[in-house]
Amino acid sequence: MSNAAGLSFDLPPGVPADVDVPDEPLTAALDRAAVTWPDRVALDFLGATTTYRELADAAARGAQVLLDLGVRPGDRVALAMPNCPSHVVAFWAALRVGAVVVEHNPTYTAEELAHQLADSGAVVAVVWQKTVPAVLASLERTDVRAVVAVDLSADLPWAKRLALRLPLARARRTRAAMCGPVPSHVPSWHRLAAAARPASTTAPSPDDLALLQYTGGTTGTPKAAMLSHRNLVANALQGHAWTGAEPGTEVVYGVLPFFHAFGLTLCLSYAVRVGATLVLFPSFDPALVLEAQRRRPGTFLPAVPPMLDRLVTAATEAGADLSSFRHAISGAMALPAETARRWEEATGGLVVEGYGMTETSPVALGNPLAPERRPGTLGLPFPGTRVRIVDQEDPTRDVDPATGGELLIQGPQVFQGYWQRPEETAAQLLPGGWLRTGDVVRVDRGSVVLVDRMKEMIVTGGFKVYPSQVEDHLRGMPGIADVAVVGVPGGAMGESVVAAVVLDDGASGVDLGAVREWCEQRLARYALPRRLVVLTELPRSQVGKVLRRVVRDQVLAGEPA
């Protein structure tokens, strides 16, 4: 049985059930912003400011740089750099010439970059100076014809650039962290852009490919999700409808990396659509955030829970004021109730949990930005988004939403498929444009609740164990600061449940017997951990998500704490 229309939900007051996605490319938002708010600060990078008029001009000059390097519509342009104005400019410049942006983590190894560059077929790579050696080492295995280096320090305010030249230990450390040696044959992005005239380009089609965003790195070999201009426009529009932002007033803090779908959409396309000032940070550093907060108070913070915790702690210790933040959206992992409480107490604003995937551009569901929010739930579908809950083995059969099953999503933000992977696309995208998420959810009192990921589910003795349920219970155990639960080969049982824990500072120790006794309070016997591993820290992705696959590998390798 199939429910092609999807489940029904009551959206928050003022939030439309659907959105009318305009027939325009993503670049139209920047063109509009440059006309509507020409003198409004678009970017603030450690005090260096760029207005919307200046940003549009810089993007046009960057477009000419790419044209001079031979980039043509449909070509892929690789970007690998931290958050900085040059990253923003290169992003918009590539889209202006009709090219496809390919985002990469600038800290990747040469091998990791080689795979993605070769897979995407990128012809030009605009990369951070410190990433240049890794890209050059991979050139023989890729189609990259030109590498352009970005000097992060060149984006700083004049006074801070001057301070880096001082013969002081602190200046040397900062310079070494921001810059790196570049071979003489690799041109400078800043010099090329300064010499270029603004390009006259033809706007891409709304259905043209805009972005290749790699995903799946925590579960296997990364593959590129294909996102069109229409996908990205739709998600920015949905985000605007959800937040109700007053155009030309918001100050968005860009602490999430732009090479991650969460950071890219909310800090680039959404921010420009609502005419926000984007305060950029090359990496998440609470001290830098508090410094910016004194200079240009933020109103909207997309983040992950560990960032919220660290920022509140730093603000408390420094006596800093966070009350300008009206809204925060937390994603990539479950938002603990205690984290939400601390943030809302410190700011007087709201923090809500959102849900999405790279394949949904990325946001698909969210909690209402209103007192009626329900912490610990994924919330409700975004405007124009439909969801179904289906049998995990047979996605054509809808199941009782209260019982739970796999979440399917349909909407204008759902991706076009995986780059050069038709079989994986067919397995993920079902007829009618329904996306299989691989996440098990249920509906409780009108909200969608995450149960766990199907790929990380543990099967022991024929029973299904959801790691997050065991983790949620263990996080409340005295002495345990953090935990990741994984399954390892368990002989006739299939898999054994293993709890990898990080102990609280000063904790005398936790043994397996105590863990099992604690878990027996709420969990079935088959879900009780059969092994306990103590780690000094849990491996996390760049945005703070615990990498269960890496934890499992550590357990199997018998790594010491």
From TrEMBL:
GO terms for biological process: fatty acid metabolic process. InterPro entries: AMP-bd_C, AMP-bd_C_sf, AMP-binding_CS, AMP-dep_synth/lig_dom, ANL_N_sf. Coiled coil: none annotated. Keywords: Ligase. GO terms for molecular function: medium-chain fatty acid-CoA ligase activity. Residues 470-545 form the AMP-binding enzyme C-terminal domain. The keyword Oxidoreductase does not apply. Residues 31-419 form the AMP-dependent synthetase/ligase domain. Belongs to the ATP-dependent AMP-binding enzyme family. This is AMP-dependent synthetase and ligase. It comes from Cellulomonas fimi (strain ATCC 484 / DSM 20113 / JCM 1341 / CCUG 24087 / LMG 16345 / NBRC 15513 / NCIMB 8980 / NCTC 7547 / NRS-133).
